[in-house]
């Protein structure tokens, strides 16, 4: 029986990768090209008549039992692209010599001769149908010259007795003969296709020898052009029956976990159950409405940044396709402040909600309104439609019913280099909002189990009364003192269309006042301009380092590395979510400092490995005279 071609020395090259960043390429190629040959019963051991009777039937069954499209594709743009990325990372880390050392090690694998270093390569994972579907991963490698590629492959195969010869019946098949049986390599469209170790059987070997895999350089061109490394999940490759069966098992498992736990309160159980059901419904919705899921990453050298995308492609004319297309909403009410730069952390969302999402948000709002009513209102007040809690939640619900949410929250760094958290929620206009909030705060203050110190109308910012909730403890711990400058309080207030909040010391009030003043003094044109994505999060690491003194940074190995990698201009992580022509994309963008940090981390690991190797060598040399004396 023929078995698939796999290479053996994966572990060796994995260790090499840890020592030298550039040998990431070797790891990828070895995983693609290699694994240990499995012992199989030789086909020649069967009687000739038996083979003739069995082969046609098994081949037909094998072709039909493996799904026609791969469920998962892992695509590498090219060897040269990856090598270029690794060179760039070590240049940023000011350790180019590591890349040079790693480059020289390619000689151990015949310099990858026979592999086209400018074309994409990767893995396709097919599914073999059955009661329990089985994965069938295949490798695709671009080949320049078959003979040279086979020479490289022979250097990687373990053992001295293996030989690679062309199949006697077909020019596109090559057979590896060795102590452990036979293996097969299939060449098509200048690519070599092989199976991973452990999946060799009549069905998978029939697939390798008979299936039209297509040209990976053409069918995966979009992934190769956009990303250095990408993973694609093709939901269309899953048959409907298999999808339904999976969801049935998954639904049963989730519902089992949603039973009320011992000691769990009714309110906590209701919230957990509601969240669990929503997660289950979201997964079912994605599997039924989605077509593809892609994770892709690349390094943009001119801009000196890294990009990681998560793309969801919706089925044409599906509910998901219509929903994501309508995500962008009108400009945020908070637009003039959500685009401020160099904030430690900022999150904003101004987006339209699909009907399905509106129902989900309304469920949560109803839940919290119910819990608050049971806690603060008498039974008679709960029967009325004019309670302060209903008046408080009504404009929020109206905003959701209209299908738009507009919120922001920011962690700001104050002139004292301490942090304060501020934020706001835009709601439908309501003159009752300030008074209803005040009544709710007063009722919380009267609760017998309330331990916070509450001060109504404690501060005023831009004509808006802020109510302060201060924790019982008046002594700040080390972290509170370091990050916030003291014991934090929660400040909350409202005007007729926004619920405002701030958390921190008195500097939080000043930060919120500045933000509201910026909004109020902005021109109408400026406020209508949308400056951020519909959903956006940004993070700057430099303000966090500014919380520590120079002496503290130098004493800490980790912070010293961070201080060397990041400046004010290269420390941003930006996360955005916005629609595409066929679905929705969430993008993570990393500034140059994070690429530099990666290079520094790999370099330090390389140095540690070198030191350990030198130490072992020295110990071996010191021990040699003792060993020689014992021999004498």
Can you characterise this structure?
It is a single chain. The chain has 632 residues and is α+β, with helices and mostly antiparallel strands. Among the domains are: 2-223, no CATH class; 329-533, no CATH class. It is built from 24 helices and 21 strands. It has a 21-stranded mixed β-sheet that branches. Strand 13 (404-413) and strand 14 (419-426) form a beta hairpin. Helix 3 (48-65) crosses helix 7 (202-210), helix 4 (79-92) packs antiparallel against helix 5 (96-104) and helix 11 packs antiparallel against helix 14 (355-376). The longest helix has 40 residues, at 592-631. The model is unreliable at 1-64 (pLDDT under 50). Residues 42-61, 609-632 are annotated as: Disordered. Residues 43-61 have a biased composition (Basic and acidic residues).
Features:
21-stranded mixed beta sheet; globular; alpha+beta; 632 residues; 45% helix; disordered N terminus; 21 strands
Write down the overall mean pLDDT: 85
Helical segment tally? 24
Instruction: Count all strands and give the number.
Output: 21
Q: Which blocks of ≥5 consecutive residues have pLDDT under 50?
A: 1-64
- Rough outline: globular
Which class of secondary structure composition applies to the elements? alpha+beta
Radius of gyration, Cα only, in angstroms?
Answer: 31 Å
- Biggest sheet statistics: 21 strands, mixed
User: What percent strand?
Assistant: 15-25%
**Spatial separation of the terminal alpha carbons:** 54 Å
Biased composition (Basic and acidic residues): 43-61
Region (Disordered): 42-61, 609-632
Protein name: DUF3352 domain-containing protein
Keywords: Signal
């Amino acid at each position: 029986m023929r078995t698939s071609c796999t290479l053996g020395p994966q572990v060796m090259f994995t260790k090499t990768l840890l020592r030298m960043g550039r040998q990431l390429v070797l790891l990828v190629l070895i995983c693609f090209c290699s694994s240990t040959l499995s012992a199989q019963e030789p086909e020649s051991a069967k009687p000739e008549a038996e083979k003739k009777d069995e082969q046609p039937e098994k081949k037909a069954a094998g072709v039909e039992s493996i799904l026609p499209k791969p469920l998962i594709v892992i695509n590498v743009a090219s060897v040269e692209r990856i090598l270029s990325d690794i060179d760039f990372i070590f240049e940023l880390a000011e350790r180019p010599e590591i890349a040079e050392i790693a480059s020289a090690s390619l000689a151990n694998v015949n310099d990858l001769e026979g592999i086209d270093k400018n074309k994409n390569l990767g893995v396709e994972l097919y599914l073999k149908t059955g009661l329990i579907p089985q994965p069938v991963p295949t490798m695709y490698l671009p080949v320049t010259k078959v003979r040279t590629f086979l020479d490289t492959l022979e250097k990687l195969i373990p053992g001295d007795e293996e030989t690679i010869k062309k199949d006697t019946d077909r020019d596109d098949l090559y057979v590896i003969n060795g102590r452990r049986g036979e293996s097969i390599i299939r060449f098509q469209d200048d690519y070599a296709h092989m199976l991973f170790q452990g999946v060799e059987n009549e069905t998978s070997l029939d697939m390798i020898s008979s299936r039209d895999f297509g040209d990976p350089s053409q069918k995966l061109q979009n992934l190769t052009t956009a990303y250095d490394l990408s993973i694609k999940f093709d939901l269309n490759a899953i048959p409907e029956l298999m999808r339904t069966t999976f969801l049935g098992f998954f639904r049963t498992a989730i519902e089992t976990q949603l039973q009320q736990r011992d000691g769990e309160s009714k309110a906590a159980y209701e919230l957990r159950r509601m969240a669990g059901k929503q997660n289950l419904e979201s997964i079912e919705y994605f599997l039924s409405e989605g077509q593809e899921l892609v994770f892709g990453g690349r390094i943009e050298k001119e801009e000196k940044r890294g990009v990681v995308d998560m793309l969801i492609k919706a089925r044409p004319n599906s509910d998901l396709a219509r929903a994501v297309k309508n995500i962008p909403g009108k400009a945020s009410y908070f637009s003039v402040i959500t685009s401020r730069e160099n904030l430690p952390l900022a999150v904003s969302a101004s987006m339209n909600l699909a009907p399905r999402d509106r129902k989900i948000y309304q469920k949560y709002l109803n839940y919290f309104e119910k819990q608050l009513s049971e806690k603060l209102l008498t039974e008679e007040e709960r029967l009325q439609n004019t309670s302060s809690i209903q008046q408080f939640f009504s404009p929020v619900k109206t905003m959701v019913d209209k299908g738009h949410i507009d919120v922001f929250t920011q962690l700001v760094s104050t002139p004292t280099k301490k942090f304060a958290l501020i934020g706001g929620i835009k709601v439908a206009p309501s003159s009752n909002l300030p008074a209803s909030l005040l009544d709710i705060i007063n009722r919380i203050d009267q609760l017998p189990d309330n331990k916070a110190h509450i001060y109504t109308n404690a501060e005023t910012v831009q004509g808006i009364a802020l109510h302060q909730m201060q924790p019982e403890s008046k002594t700040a711990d080390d972290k509170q003192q370091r990050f916030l400058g003291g014991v934090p309080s929660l400040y909350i207030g409202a005007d007729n269309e926004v619920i405002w909040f701030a958390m921190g010391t008195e500097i939080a009030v000043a930060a919120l006042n500045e933000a509201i003043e910026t909004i109020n003094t902005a021109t109408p044109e400026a406020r209508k301009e949308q400056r951020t994505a519909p959903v956006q999060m940004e993070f700057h690491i430099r303000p966090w380092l500014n919380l520590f003194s120079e002496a503290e940074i130098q004493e800490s190995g980790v912070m010293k590395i961070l201080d060397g990698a990041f400046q004010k201009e290269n420390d941003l992580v930006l996360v955005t979510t916005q629609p595409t022509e066929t679905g929705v994309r969430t993008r993570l963008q990393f500034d140059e400092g994070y690429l530099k940090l990666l290079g520094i981390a790999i370099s330090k690991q390389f140095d540690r490995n070198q030191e350990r190797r030198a130490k072992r060598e020295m110990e071996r040399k010191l021990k040699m005279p003792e060993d020689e004396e014992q021999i004498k």
